[in-house]
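Q: For a teaching handout, I want to show students what a protein-ligand complex looks like in token form. Below are the inputs, and the small molecule is nicotinamide-adenine-dinucleotide. Please produce the holo structure.
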Amino acid sequence: MNVAVVRETYPGERRVALVPALAPQLTKAGWRVLVEAGSGAAAGFSDADYQASGAEIVPDRNAAFQQADVVLQVRCLGANLQAGRGDLDLLRPEQVVIGMCDPLGQPEAIRELAERKAIVFALELMPRITRAQSMDVLSSMATISGYKAVLQAADHLPKMFPMLMTAAGTLVAAKVLVIGAGVAGLQAIASARRLGAVVQAYDVRPVVKEQIESLGAKFVELDLDTGDSEDKGGYAKQLSDEQIQNQQQQLADIVAQCDVCITTAAIPGKPAPLLVTADGVRRMRPGSVIVDLAAERGGNCELTKPDEVVVDNGVSILGPTNLASEVPQHASQMYAKNLVTFLVNLTKDGQLDIDLNDEVIRDTLVAKDGQVQNEGLREMLGLEPLVLPSTSPPIDHLAQKTGAS
Ligand code: NAD
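A: Here is the structure, written as tokens, with nicotinamide-adenine-dinucleotide included.
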């Protein structure tokens, strides 16, 4: 079996789907590993590094697609809407593509991939079960983003993070507020604490109180009934408009007091909740910084512009949409580990074994046999259910992922 890694084509993307250190895991299984020349360069991995670990370098993308039974990518079409389209003509029927394709945000792109009769796995749909943790790319990338968000905030803040008592006087520690304490938020809390900031954090799911406190941060409690805010998959449910408004008002007082606010609140498959209004920003002190990790989904802050730094009343609002790519080496290492674990799980005796009784395989499979495979996605696209219900993921499973339950 030939497994190919191709160069990422999304503008500014620096990650790569496979790192040299993991190539032997594939070659030992008897597979050829083909790497498009230059694929790892932006993450610090040379073609020679891949060759030394048993991979073969192929000169261009066409050659990689032509020879590959399985293509590994970070961003496939969907998560790479313009440049990713170029790969459509390279795909062969039955060729397997594994990567991130933003299926909930761009279901039409999945339809286009399905029309090429490729077999596509969208890693964003990994079920949140213990066995799948080692394949969970969203968690891996959120870990990197949470860390990097703190560094960006520290870089823009006209203050230092730690408290210092020096001969030149005392510097007061920066006050950091993290809104949304999922994977990215918890990593942001831990990273801000390591830099010496005083940290508090808020999440709509009260179950995270203990996790926030175990990292040395204070849990912000709002006067808001959010007891049933978590779905069966561990994700937050969407709040009512009234609850969101109430939340905005109560958060505004806390946001006004902080030097840095890192927002990470998200509901899978929905626009991000608006938590910091323009008025809330204008109550912050000049020099304060907001890093809005929800920028890609519309932002948690009203003034966020994706991939821009907006300065309003002296407050800097950053809206990075691809932070994991800014720590490309470790991000690629984590992503590749997730992907290789997934690929090994997808094979038996060295051959592909698409076993739809395995929920990891069934939930992530989005295109096969010329059809969009996932029932929830088919519903989003207005397609009839497939005739083989026993091989399709149950609708209520995707409903959890879209926050609809
Ligand atoms: P996410 O990116 O979907 O959301 C980020 C955070 O925003 C969540 O904590 C959510 O509760 C919060 N949020 C949503 N709406 C909000 C609002 N209006 N106000 C404040 N906060 C709001 O979530 P995530 O980081 O991907 O993880 C969600 C949960 O899943 C976590 O509990 C995590 O530990 C769990 N998880 C489990 C597994 C597994 O078991 N395999 C893997 C990864 C994550």
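A: Two things your students might notice: The radius of gyration is 22 Å. The mean pLDDT is 93.
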